[in-house]
Amino acid sequence: MAAFAPNSALVFSGRGATGARSLSSRSIAKPVAINDQSRARKVNVGVRAATGSIREQAGRRAPLEKSTLFNCKYVPFSGDQNEEYSIDDVIYRSKNGGLLDVQHDMEALAIYPPEYWKALFDERVGKTVWPYGSGVWSKKEWVLPGISDDDIVSMFEGNSNLFWADRYGREVLGMNDLWVKQCGNSHTGSFKDLGMTALVSQVNRMRKQGKPLAAVGCASTGDTSAALSAYAAAAGIPSIVFLPADKISLAQLVQPIANGSLVLSIDTDFDGCMRLIREVTAELPIYLANSLNSLRLEGQKTAAIEILQQFDWQVPDYVIIPGGNLGNVYAFFKGFKMCKDLGLVDKLPRMVVAQAHNANPLYRAYKTGFEKFEAIKAEPTFASAIQIGDPVSIDRAVYALKETNGIVEEATEEELMDAAAEADLTGMFNCPHTGVALAALKKLREAQTIGPSDKVVVVSTAHGLKFAQSKVAYHAGEIEGIVGKFANPPVEVKEDFGLVMDVLKERLVQ
Ligand SMILES: *Cc1c(COP(=O)(O)O)cnc(C)c1O
Predict the structure, then answer these.
(1) Residue 332: which of 304, 306, 294 has the closest Cα?
(2) Mind listing the UniProt keywords for this protein, alphabetically (predicted)?
(3) Which of 42, 167, 338, 402 is the S-S candidate for 9 at Cβ 3.0 to 4.6 Å?
């Protein structure tokens, strides 16, 4: 009972505390009042002390009254009950070589009612309070509850906008409730930041505990290495990235170079890089940051929670995610599922994974009703971040799809480039992966699987500017085998008034 004693969690210091306190109690008073008046005063969501850095201010802040009860651990993804590991262990796989999953103490989290969590998350959105200004760490109790605020490495990632695709939905697809979650509007230009803040924070903590982790490393199709190198650089931790030579975009290559990573450009594909880094991390004290690593998914799942929050806890009918290694679809599922299990929402969306036809092992398995899965050799695709033939998280993805009555769709190179370009004409600037998801949406809409007023979220996984080369090639008509239905090449004109007028008359006066 002691923890319920009035004011036990309220430790304010410095100027401005009273104002902040009355603000937070006012904004949460209504929902919390259903249980216990005293709780209203104790919701303590980043009250600012006036002095010191935001990190120091966080150090003086009292924790949520029940937060010591929250915890998480690693368990085998297969559900084996007899095996578990501390989150502070350096471990990637279960005893039998299977995937691990981060499991939260849901009973402890359920001590607080849904209204409490909603109010808490809403209260923290988009502030500069350490670390809650981050869209990931604003959900800290559901991500890594045991980590000290001081160990967190964050760039206030997340809180990305939901783009209402008004014109594209209306004019192209005959839909009125279509949204694009702009996960690429982020520090390094892809959703990978959401996972990397969780992983690098935990590595930071383990290094402080004295664990022998000389560096963090990953194999990457480009975006993971960009995110890893940025977060490692922010924390002052050495990083090493293995990249498939000539298979990533220039922007993706220059990011880890700029952030000071040791960059190994290897003459193979992603799957080859992955094999090598696994062998290397078995020999050297390098912490493996691949999506095999379940810590990252804890950060990535917050994008799903954020979508629900942005819709004021309305659940979309469909969420479409471009998938390669297939960790992200499971991360989104986990975010949605936690919200349902803790009563913040009452259902799950149908999840759709969109794959490039050239790298479609999940799509092929889906066509057999998930009876059988076979790794394939992925062929080149403009959606280079999902050119993966042997996805690490295949079991996770199949689970998420089965639990949500999910769908898998695929898109050819022409379909994905066309979809990205057509949507760009309504104000977006899509990367090819988002193009894959948009092409999948178009097919599901044409098949009437998705209806005109269904609430649909397309997850945009990276910023289009990272993939300017292929977009330029599309508009220049330089891609072999693709007509470029929506190409809009620049018109080259000599410096001459008459010639400029000729072009304008031809194009404008019809
Ligand atoms: C990593 C990545 C994906 C695929 O995510 P998975 O978890 O591997 O399925 C999709 N799009 C972009 C831009 C990515 O960087």
Answers:
(1) 304
(2) Amino-acid biosynthesis, Chloroplast, Lyase, Plastid, Pyridoxal phosphate, S-adenosyl-L-methionine, Transit peptide
(3) 42
